[in-house]
Amino acid sequence: MSAVLTRPTLLESQPAADPCAHCDARPSSVCNAIGERDLSRLAALTQVVEAAPGHTFISEGEPASHFFNITRGTAKLFKLLPDGRRQITGFATAGHFLGLAVSDTYAFSAEALEPTRYCRFPRNKLRGLLRDFPAMEARLLEVASNELVAAQEQMLLLGRKTARERLASFLVTLYRHSAPCGRTRTRFPLPMTRGDIADYLGLTIETVSRTLTVLRKEGLIDIPGPGVLIIANAAALERVAGGLN
Amino acid sequence: MSAVLTRPTLLESQPAADPCAHCDARPSSVCNAIGERDLSRLAALTQVVEAAPGHTFISEGEPASHFFNITRGTAKLFKLLPDGRRQITGFATAGHFLGLAVSDTYAFSAEALEPTRYCRFPRNKLRGLLRDFPAMEARLLEVASNELVAAQEQMLLLGRKTARERLASFLVTLYRHSAPCGRTRTRFPLPMTRGDIADYLGLTIETVSRTLTVLRKEGLIDIPGPGVLIIANAAALERVAGGLN
DNA sequence: CGGTCACTTGATCGTCTTCAATACCAGTGG
DNA sequence: CCACTGGTATTGAAGACGATCAAGTGACCG
């Protein structure tokens, strides 16, 4: 393949103003711990990058040179076994911070699902920044704590829930995250494929497809078209997700 | 039941000297981020508690009033579904810090496996301490990052590995943690029951028992008595754990 | 149009679960 | 001393859930 066909990351050589000042993702990201006045210091370390769908911008096991902050789009985070079995550990959307690890190699891979934009910071330089801005360190701890809680919830799902409960849990979580501020939408996009959902829930494509069909026939959800999901009966879905019925 | 029979936590009314100064777990815990001179401030907030085997000292869903630091023994951390299905998310030994969560309720329960000692700190007071000692906050972030990596590894196990691979992974992890400083021991205690192992690996007691028997007959491990494990062929076990063969 | 890709649906298979019986040990009390 | 109990572990037989194998559809695209 030629370099063009592999769709490498496009580096936007941010010539003009402060990229952080106009960042859509700032309110929901860790960067909001840094005041307006000090943003330029952060911006000086920042490199804005665009990843095309399917592009892997973090590879498990490679030297961990950067931290990442997603500002647009969605990426899947995953780990692989030697024979190709894959476990998606999470989906990262705008505001998510990636690369938190003490190890000197990445513990997971990340691949863009949609056109995805992210900032990256050299690890060593960010360390100094954290020293100067303890508020950002506190914010990172907050983020990491929340992710830890989510990871434990996912362990419960993977270890103890049935396929039906897993799908319900997944859809309910999407539903809850569909609008950050209290308000939820019943109709929202489903950017991941059946294969991605399967690898996230520890199932196969076929089981995901079958189970979605069942939930649809029961009237709990609807899938009017590819990539679109409608929550028709949120209460019932939450009950299923919790293991009742 | 009477209060005596339920074996409640015994509060050691630490009358004498600084508990932190003589703490065995300090080198491996987050407290080592605080210098000798400031230890007294930490000690003033600390309450040393002893938990008998089987005692639940953190309950999922209850108001999160404290942080915890295990200093001796082992505890299992777990989440429950309404019908009683249980997922153990980890085992906490000396040096482990518990309770990192932004939520105002605990996200998991913790139960002592052996006689277990821990320190507890009121949440609100520790916040002030973290403000004054950024080094401790940095240390907590480090701990949380490591736990996050471990959690992702566990997701891979629960979502994609076979029973055989799960057991091998579990035993290899125990093996690696058997001695912190490089040196590993081939014989070490196995304080958890088959039920605990099953709930940690997303299996049943019977499958755990059967699989251990197979590994034993293959000569990869030996179980000379209850609670004792011998790693006979670490290399082969690691291969199985990694999904090869 | 042929090609690929994502998805759905059906039939069969296999791993792990479930149900059940047995053994073992420690503690307790007749 | 020994029966009785409760907890833990092992082992066997049957069953179920999800995986695997396979076929077919529709959308998109060169």
* Major β-sheet strand ordering of chain A: 1-2-9-4-7
Question: What is the multimeric organization of the chains shown?
Answer: homodimer
Helical proportion of chain A, percent range: 25-40%
Counting DSSP E segments of at least 2 residues, the number of strands of chain A comes to 12
Total helix count of chain A?
7
Mean pLDDT of chain A: 89
Low-pLDDT segments, ≥5 res of chain A: 1-8
From the helix content, strand content and strand pairing of chain A, which structural class follows?
alpha+beta
Q: Which pair of chains forms the biggest interface, and how many residues does each contribute?
A: A-B, 45 and 45 residues
Which sheet architecture does the biggest sheet of chain A show?
5 strands, antiparallel
The CATH superfamily of the largest domain in chain A turns out to be Jelly Rolls
Would you tell me which CATH topology of the largest domain in chain A applies?
Jelly Rolls
Strand content of chain A: 15-25%
Radius of gyration of chain A: 19 Å
Gross CATH architecture of the largest domain in chain A: Sandwich
